[in-house]
């Protein structure tokens, strides 16, 4: 069940990716406010895992832009290397990941690790693959 967005409450995003597509859920007080998922394009399906996982964060931030822009957002991930990406120097990554990081810069976010992302995991696996 979705709840109404509260402007004064803190925001967190849980996102996950699988071979079919990214899934994300916007949360306030551990309750769902909005959900999003999509299937990957043919080109995106050939991305390395780290690039797909970084794309998932970008997808979630851009999909929930009206909710997270201008406020502190906590992004929870299961994928530990993605947590480290936002903390390391920008020039240490391939060009595609650098472009993803540039798309994340307008947002005030903190990326942390969480083991169980049940809703986001379900959304990422629930995409319909079209060819």
Automatic annotation (TrEMBL):
InterPro entries recorded: DNA/RNA_pol_sf, Retrovirus_Pol_polyprotein, RT_RNaseH
Which keywords belong to this entry? Endonuclease, Hydrolase, Nuclease, Nucleotidyltransferase, RNA-directed DNA polymerase, Transferase
* Residue ranges of every copy of the Reverse transcriptase RNase H-like domain listed in the record: 8-107
Which molecular-function annotations from GO does this UniProt entry contain? endonuclease activity; hydrolase activity; RNA-directed DNA polymerase activity
Matching entries from Pfam families are given as:
RT_RNaseH
**Signal peptide range:** none
Q: What is this protein called?
A: Retrovirus-related pol polyprotein from transposon 17.6
Q: Which organism is it from?
A: Plakobranchus ocellatus
């Amino acid at each position: 069940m979705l709840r109404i967005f509260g402007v004064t409450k803190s925001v967190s995003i849980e996102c996950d990716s699988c071979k079919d597509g990214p899934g994300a859920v916007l949360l306030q007080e551990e309750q769902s406010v909005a959900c999003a998922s999509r299937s990957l394009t043919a080109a995106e399906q050939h991305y390395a895992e780290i690039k797909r996982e970084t794309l998932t964060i970008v997808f979630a931030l851009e999909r929930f832009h009206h909710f997270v822009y201008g406020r502190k957002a906590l992004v929870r991930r299961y994928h530990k290397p993605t947590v480290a990406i936002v903390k390391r120097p920008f020039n240490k990554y391939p060009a595609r990941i650098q472009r993803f990081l540039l798309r994340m810069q307008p947002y005030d976010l903190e990326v942390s690790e969480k083991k169980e992302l049940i809703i986001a995991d379900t959304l990422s696996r629930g995409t319909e693959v079209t060819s």
